[in-house]
Amino acid sequence: MPDTTFLDSTELVLNMGPQHPSTHGVLRVILKLDGEKVLGTDCVIGYLHRGVEKIAEARTYTQFNPYVDRLDYVTAVSNGLGYCLAVEKLLNVEASSRAQAVRVILTELNRIASHLLWLGTHALDIGAITPVFYCFREREAILKIFEQYCGARLTTHAFRIGGLQYDVYNGFEREVKAFCDMFPTKVDEYEELLTNNRIWVDRLKNVGILSAEDCKQYGVTGPVLRAAGVEWDLRKAQPYSGYEKYEFAIPTRQNGDTYDRYIVRMEEMRQSVRIVRQAVEVIPEGPITAKVPKVIKPPAGEAYVSIEAPKGELGYYIVSDGSTQPYRVRVRPPSFINLQALDRMVRGALIADVVAVIGTLDIVLGEVDR
Amino acid sequence: MASLLKKIFLVDLLQGLRVTFRNQNPKYICTEQYPAERPQIAERYRGAPRLNTNPETGETLCMGCNMCALACPETLIVVTSARNETTKRKEMVSFTFDTSRCMFCGLCEDACPTDALELTQEFELASYTREGQVWDAKMLEEGPKPTRYKC
Q: ipTM of the assembly?
């Protein structure tokens, strides 16, 4: 924003955040307003910066694993999967088929948990208070499964380099199947609450439109990209961890507005249930870890692995110098890159739409700032 | 026409209200009455650390090998050991565990060769002082003693 506008008497500069509840964390948005109309925005980030990438350079490969859970703390399992796959690529090992199946089940459950949290808080921002209670009730069922599997609910540290630390517990299959049977009716319930609700539709339709062309230019990925009509999902485009074995569809919509992103995420939850159901049906027998040395010392080189995290493409670029500690770890977080499209989406809209757009981008500040 | 009638008779809003009322059924209540009712903690839960002792002799299982301290990403475990002159074995002298910096990743318990260090299902770790968060071997063996409230 040019500085001169601050002196213009018809324009108002308003600070939104970092303590604003609708910014989902510590994001500060400087809004330039003409009455209710947004003329421009400026995001100030870094309030949650912990220097995770720098921490990695002083930790061994195994020790850094729990830190990636804290990037996007609502999708800790996905983060762990991406990191483990990247180190496995450096080591040139592949997890066993049993480990891969369990990984797929847990990451897809995590995707559902992440989307549930998004739906609850997004609806809360818009003014629908009821969904958040139902969403958290179902999310609790997933977190219970995580807790029983790996001993933690949020910062799970579920996977280890080369496979898994824990085998599935007694009754894991039964509980996951029970969840898969219960959950689709719950999604229908949320849809009944919201999809046709006139307030919901009025607040979301044609708000924060981001066309497919803009998405590609900004590098936006995940449900935001798919809502604009681009059928791009890394699980299909470059399958990892055995995703090629499962049948699922990539939900897409055409308009690229907030309402479409809502529909896409709802459909994604249903598709995730489909994947979990297929994966839990046949968990192959076998070892849970591949042959990995106790002290992980990859040969000098570099590896980039990207996975489809619930929020978009999550990439890990690791450079190894042949020692036990990574030389450099770079995380390509989906939230950080999706957030850049905020200004494009809210220009000319109203203040209330800024809240809706921040909600629909589904950002987590732990991942934006790292 | 149909959509106009739907709009006038608030069909969309009533549809949502039906879901709300259906969920009013007491059998869907899932609130945990926490201090009165203890939550169900999973067996693998990673909570308060504990140093296990031999149940028969009461001696510590820790042999001061320092593996947990090396595995810890935050280097919050400090173990000192000394050679016992009579048995010619290394023995743990002191063991401190800073729970205020712990992120309960469980790498220390994975590293322990004798299953001496273990993360338990105990989850009430609050303390009034910072010093109270640093646990020594005695505290680690006894475990925290949180107040149990009865409502």
A: 0.83
| Cis peptide bond upstream of A18, omega within 30 | yes
Of A260, A198, A188, residue with least CA distance to B3: A198
pLDDT in tens, chain A (370 residues): 555 555 556 778 888 878 877 777 788 888 888 888 888 888 888 888 988 899 999 999 989 999 998 888 889 999 999 999 999 999 888 888 888 899 999 999 999 999 999 999 999 888 888 889 889 988 989 999 999 998 888 888 888 888 888 888 888 889 899 999 989 998 988 888 888 888 888 888 888 888 888 888 998 998 999 998 888 888 888 888 888 888 888 898 888 889 999 999 999 999 999 999 998 888 888 888 888 888 888 888 899 999 999 998 999 999 998 888 999 999 999 999 998 888 888 888 888 888 889 888 888 888 888 8
| A198 shares contact with chain B (CB less than 8 Å) | yes
pTM of the predicted model as reported, rounded to 2 decimal places: 0.88
**Is A67 within 8 Å of chain B by CB?**
yes
Give the separation between CA A81 and CA A263, rounded to whole angstroms: 26
Q: Tell me the nearest-neighbour CA distance from B87 into chain A, angstroms.
A: 30
Chain A nearest-CA distance from B127, in A, is 21
Contact by Cβ (8 Å): A107, A72: no
> Using a CB-CB distance cutoff of 8 angstroms, which residues of chain A are in contact with residue B12?
196-198
Using an 8 Å CB-CB cutoff, list chain B residues near A129: none
- Give the residue carrying structure tokens 């609050």: B126
Q: How far apart are CA A285 and CA A306, in angstroms?
A: 27
Q: Which of B15, B43, B106 is nearest residue A196 as measured by Cβ atoms? A: B15
Question: Do the Cβ atoms of B42 and A147 come within 8 Å?
Answer: yes
